[in-house]
Amino acid sequence: MGEEDNFWSSGPTGPCGPCSELYYDLHPERGYAGADLGDDTRFIEFYNLVFMQYNRKDDGTLEILQNRNIDTGMGLERMAQILQKVPNNYETDLLYPIMECAAELAGVKYVGADHRTKLHLKVIGDHMRAIVYLISDGVTPSNIGRGYVVRRLIRRVVRTGRLLGIKGDGRGDAEGAFLPIIARTVINLGTNIDPDIKRNSVRILEELRREELRFVQTLERGEKLLDQLICEALASVDGTENCKPILSGKDVFILYDTYGFPVEITKEVAEEKSVTVDFQEFEAEMEIQRQKSQAAHNVVKLSVGGAVSEFLSTVSETEFLGYDTLQCSASIMGLLVNEIPVTEASKGDEVELVLDRTSFYAESGGQIGDHGLLFVQGSGENMRQSIIEIKDVQKSQGSVFIHKGFVKEGTVKAGNEVNAAVDAMLRQGAKVHHTATHLLQSALKKVLGNETSQAGSLVAFDRLRFDFNFHRPMSEHEITEVESLINAWIGDAAPLKSQIMPLSDAKDAGAIAMFGEKYGDEVRVVEVPGISMELCGGTHVSNIAEIRGFKIISEQGIASGIRRIDAVAGEAFINYTNSRDSIVKQLCSTFKVKGEDIPTRVDNLLEELRTVRNEVTALRAKIATIKASAIADTASVVGTAKGGCSKHG
Question: Can you tell me the distance from the alpha carbon of 488 to that of 592, in angstroms, rounded to the nearest whole number?
């Protein structure tokens, strides 16, 4: 069999290889003469084995992978279909109850329904399950990234429900939402499989309700625009027999693409008004959109090209020693200048180095890479020590650490022995803020609810940033409560524990995993006993008393359902409080009051300012009246008209 039938690839470039596909015959009684595996009414592919042995390069040629493997996958729904002897995945007990719930709200029955109705119910069943699990895992509707995927799925379900005839919540409340009702069925089906779905149910249902009601408003705006366009189409008819009202395909596309308005509804509403739709023009607009989307998709490269790829394939993974030490001896396994492999670099050159072992942490898990110095002891006639200043460390191709910096003194060669020394003060700042991030997540769950989950983070040397799922701004009381809780934990001076364990054991123990992160079979678990337990490869303090103090600087929304906290801890916390204390002392000196009296003094000054401004306004009005009266008294009569000029002698 050729590549079209017996080959799998992940994209235009990257790992690929031949595959073995396993099919189940639903109708063996038909015999095998002329049998076609493409006949999905008879054959179902339920298992696939991909022999990953090639890497497809930019020019389309294949090269043998250094590490080959077998990628295997079996479809759960397809196995359920086979075992339950139903005609398709949707009628298995994994999806059918969801469709039944939607059918009840629409006042229809799946059994005996026409093809169009069944198709709509299948869309709702499939999409609702995906939506519920995505939101449970921390993905909230937004206009970027994975959040946009969830938003598009939700909108399609809402549109499809309206096509089925679901009004409001489907149970009499015209202003209600029906997605939460269907979501409860999904949650009930998944509770015994994924306990998190039950724990996150309140957040899931509220997110769906809010997103549905917001989109319904969008749909209603689309309906208003459609009515306007139909009126314009009807008004353009001149009354002749061959002139018929037509809705342009461009207008229909704008309704669909900009307003999310279903083409089916556009067609139905237009037909009710005896207006035809130019679907040929609409399809042309859709094709333009598809080509743009495909062009964007094809530029994604899954392999590192050129000399860098070849270079990285020759080096082994970097051994990380930085959990236990900030200094270590190492060998330079590779050296790059301007992304080109070289054997030597001189003073002033910007370089990238790969070491066989390192104490430098490479950026991952939200924590930035370490800074520090690499020392190369000179030899022979030139005994001067060479120094490379490292300003960033990144991971590539798994666990190859790339140290980025510049040659500060001397020269450096591939193969040199170096002494790697991490900047201890900066590393301590990162450790303090990373552990504080874990405490912050635990505190938010206690104050705002257990359904709150991390949506992103930044751990820097002098601050932390924490993004989390929450539907409203935090109150001042909640912010204070979170700060107080964290500072109380810091005062308890609990030791921090870290250990390597199987991923399954870590999850069973209740360790929190970050959605979107990829984990191996064994993971590092960081625990503050009784407070926090997370899967984390970052660097942390040994005792949370090292954090010294914690302060939230700001809390704001950055996207729909996503909030962001900026905070400081450790030395940065001390610097922040000292700075604020200096400002308070300056205000006390200026106002001649105690610190606790500053708000009252400011309020009094503002009140005095308002009073003075009102008095000034009143005086200006009075002066204007006096001036007007004086001008009127000096007026002279010239003929029958009054002049505004005084008499001159």
Answer: 34
